[in-house]
Design a protein that fits this description.
Two copies of one chain form a homodimer. By secondary structure, the first copy, chain A, is mainly α. Chain A has one domain: Orthogonal Bundle (Arc Repressor Mutant, subunit A), CATH 1.10.10. Helices cover 66% and strands 7% of the residues of chain A. Chain A has a two-stranded antiparallel ribbon with strand order 1-2. In chain A, α2 crosses α5. The relative contact order of chain A is 0.11. The interface between A and B is large, with 46 and 46 residues. Chain A binds a DNA duplex through α3 and α4.
DNA sequence: CCAAGGTAGTTGACTTAGTCAACCATTAGC
DNA sequence: GCTAATGGTTGACTAAGTCAACTACCTTGG
């Protein structure tokens, strides 16, 4: 466990985070995966109004996003309405049920984040985020 | 992009890391996935002598490990020999080809890690690792 | 104004990652 | 020496992600 590379740290961390997320999700009995939750969140927050927004925001493949949105729709959490600005596209909005689920999702998020940060002070949290941002910058450089 | 939770940062970071890893892997034309590489590494390092060691070390399901090891064997990179201490178990060792691939794997790792750390000074790298450790501690607490 | 190229979204087929349960063979503990 | 635990394998499954092909629409340059 002692000397682990940057790469290994990230793998281990992500695995723990996903596990914790799963725990909290089925503690509340939700039928959602982590990605479904992320999609709900970006729509609820107003950051994404169309499927393409979600694709951009989460940097995911549009095929994947289509399927995530469809399963949220068949679960009755999401509705698509025609986009007046572009007939190829539809506007996304949470249904009443979707908004209800969001309050549970917020509880899950809060618990996971609390657990992640319980050994950190606020300054360390900021520090962590800015280190992540710096690493991401490094990884982005030279692409595209 | 501005205010992102701890949770979101981790998701985004992991996604970037995996993408970079894929890029480097098929830049070298290797037929390996990130998990195969991690398994090769822990065996090459001497940290894991049996399948069960790998299970413990990487915190992965034993079914998954069995399959990873098998595909490394059919690729001729890994050999199993009977474990004299336990007839249920086999000792893992890289073949000649496996050791050859490891030198390429090391190159990949180095490139990815270099890219991740190009905007960081050595102190920040240490800092990041210790923050990851602290977060992991928080997530582990209360389990088991 | 209209053809050509680009964009939004969908679908099919696929790979990788991970999980759960059942099962064998062996080993360890009383 | 029987029972319970352990190491490993297999089957069946879900989640996550990728690539290519395709439809329908939008945009632009001649």
């Amino acid at each position: 466990m002692s000397d682990v590379t940057l790469l290994e740290s990230v793998f281990r961390l992500f695995h723990l985070v996903k596990k914790e997320l799963h725990l909290q999700i089925d503690a509340l009995g939700l039928e959602l995966s982590p990605m479904h939750i992320r999609v709900l969140k970006v729509i609820a927050s107003g950051a994404c109004r169309t499927a393409n927004d979600v694709v951009q925001w989460l940097s995911r493949d549009k095929a994947q996003v289509t399927r995530l949105l469809n399963s949220l729709m068949t679960q009755g959490l999401l509705a698509k309405t025609p986009n007046p600005d572009d007939k190829r596209s539809q506007l996304l909005a949470l249904t009443e049920a979707g908004r209800a689920v969001m309050t549970q999702v917020e509880a899950i998020d809060e618990r996971v984040i609390d657990k992640m940060s319980q050994d950190l002070n606020p300054q360390q949290i900021t520090q962590f985020k800015s280190l992540v941002a710096a690493i991401s910058r490094g990884l982005d450089a030279g692409e595209r």
